[in-house]
Amino acid sequence: MSLEEFLENLTLEEIEELKRLKLEKSKICNFSKITFSDLKAIFSVQRMFEKEIFNNWFENSICLSEDEEDFLSDLLREEKNFIEIYKEEDLKVKFIAPILNKIHFRDEEREIREFYEEKLRCYQYFVSENYDSTKIEDLKGIYKNLPFVKEEIKGLV
Hints:
Blueprint: H1 3-8, H2 12-26, E1 28-29, H3 36-42, H4 55-58, H5 66-79, H6 88-100, E2 121-122, E3 125-127, E4 132-134, E5 146-148
Parallel strand pairs: 1-3
Antiparallel strand pairs: 2-3, 4-5
Helix pairs in contact: 5-6
């Protein structure tokens, strides 16, 4: 049997099974190329309606020291004319990074550290690209604001 004959005789179920086996074999997901059915097979994502989840965080009173207030005031004074025109990388380097560098994220006892270009991992799968927040919806409209790579996910939007 030739390759053409083989391909012509494949059923949709067999094609889906081959895709599943290929995905299972590779365990590497390239989010700009992954299909929605592959995505649903890897990740179980459901919308949460729990609105109180961040209450403790948002209702917590924040007290800044005089040094912290001075730092933020100086940063705003230096960058106020440029924030609106910065591209993403400039904004990160010039405005966001100085703020993040003031925060001590590392906790060796609990094995916590800051990260910037880590690959996303879910179970045994790795995401092969950096991810960013992009609004997408499936046919039922239940997935919103999921972390995905910057590239548009074809067929989903």
